[in-house]
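stage 2 :: seqdesign
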């Protein structure tokens, strides 16, 4: 379930980046592919690049914190799985 939900979110981000990059004169294919692969962090970087720095930095920071939390939980889960 989580994989499919995150993939759907990345597709939505990629579509948004494609449409908005075309409006702003940026390469829409580049931004869409990066958005599909990396998701929210690319959306934040795109916002920073297009002058919307407040929301951009907020998304980047939250994305990095989410990634760090996922890594920590994965390591803790692997350690407890190995012990039991």
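stage 2 :: out
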């Amino acid at each position: 379930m989580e994989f499919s939900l995150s993939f759907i979110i990345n597709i939505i981000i990629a579509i948004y980046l494609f449409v908005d990059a075309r409006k702003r004169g940026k390469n829409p294919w580049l931004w869409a592919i990066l958005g599909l692969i990396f998701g929210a962090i690319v959306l934040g970087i795109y916002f920073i690049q297009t002058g919307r720095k407040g929301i951009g930095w907020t998304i980047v920071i939250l994305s990095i914190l989410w990634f760090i939390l996922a890594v920590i939980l994965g390591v803790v889960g692997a350690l407890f799985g190995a012990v039991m």
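stage 3 :: structure notes
- The chain has a mean pLDDT of 91.
- The two ends are 26 Å apart (CA to CA).
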